[in-house]
Amino acid sequence: MGAVLDPVFRPGILAPARPGGWEALRGQAEAALARQPWPTTRQEEWKYTDLAALEASAFPAGSLAEVDIAPLIQPEARGSRLVFVNGRYDSHRSNTSNLPAGVRLLNLACASELAHELGTLARPGESDLFANLNTARFTDGALVIVPKEVQVATPMQVLFISEPGGEPTSSLPRLFVVVERGASATLVEEYQGRGRYFTSAVTEVIVRANASLTHERIQRESTEAFHFSHVSARVERDAHYGCRTISFGGLLSRSTPHVLMAEEGADLVLDGLALLNGAQLADTHALIDHAVPHCTSRQTHKVIADGSAQAVFNGMIFVRKDAQGTDAQQQCRGLLLSGQARINTKPQLEIFADDVKCAHGAAIGQLDPEALFYLQSRGLRLGLARNLLTYAFAADLLAGIPVPSLGRQLRQTILARTHAENLETLS
Question: What is the pLDDT of residue 42?
Answer without folding.
Answer: 95
